[in-house]
Design brief:
single chain, 231 residues, mainly alpha, 0% strand
Length: 231
């Protein structure tokens, strides 16, 4: 007897939403709270150090050259770390036990991770300069890039293209998740700064949960059956 197709109600429940992503992200955070907290602490520490060593723009000469290279160098370090945090969060969402070593996943695919996040940053920056709205569009439509880099082993440009394609039907929903994520982060900062760490961890797992549901709905993965691949 042939299998019955899924009902419209079941398909709708499987589709990602801001609420489902936040709920699943929170559940994942509480299940792996200490690993995720420590991972975010490492991420924040490295990003803070990279900002400390950034050189402010000078009037010209060598300092001006260094001031341009410095943000680039920061992205080349923090970019793979963003991909590593995405990898760790995605493994946790899929039911695997996350480990701090997962943070190095982006460095294991360094060219793809650094290149992909560099292109992502450039696209968002240029878009924000061009009347803000194009930057927000790029921020939303390319938001799956770090997950795709580790989940599908694509090169930087292909990862950006795949993210653009995968987010096509979810742009407004993802924009909503972006706005809620900003509110969560602000709330964490208000709570004596310390609350920003669990806030970032919740945001990371929520975006991973959204990506997982979106790709599952598209038939690219089945729930919990695939560990992100990093070679």
């Amino acid at each position: 007897m042939p299998a019955m197709p899924p009902s419209d109600d079941r398909v709708e429940r499987a589709r990602p939403s801001v609420r489902s992503a936040l709920e699943e992200g929170w559940h994942t955070l509480t299940a792996h709270v200490w690993t995720l907290i420590v991972a975010v602490l490492i991420y924040v520490a490295v990003e803070s150090l990279s900002n400390v060593f950034s050189v402010p723009p000078g009037p010209g000469g060598p300092q001006q050259v260094v001031s341009v290279i410095s943000p680039l160098g920061s992205i080349l370090v923090t970019g793979p770390l963003v991909v590593g945090l995405a990898y760790l969060s995605l493994r946790a969402v899929r039911g695997f036990e996350p480990e701090l070593d997962d943070l190095l996943a982006g460095f294991r695919r360094y060219v793809a991770a650094a290149g992909g996040m560099l292109l992502y940053g450039l696209a968002v920056t240029v878009g924000l300069v061009l009347f803000v709205v194009p930057g927000l569009v790029a921020m939303v439509r390319l938001s799956f890039t770090p997950y795709i880099i580790v989940d599908r082993e694509l090169d930087p440009l292909d990862a950006l293209r795949a993210s653009w394609a995968a987010t096509g039907g979810y742009a407004w929903s993802l924009f909503g998740l972006l706005m809620v994520s900003l509110l969560i982060l602000v709330g964490g900062l208000i709570l004596l700064i310390v609350g920003a760490i669990p806030a970032i961890a919740w945001i990371a797992t929520s975006w991973a949960a959204y990506y997982e549901r979106a790709t599952r709905t598209a038939g690219e993965t089945a729930p919990g059956d695939a560990d992100p691949v990093v070679t």
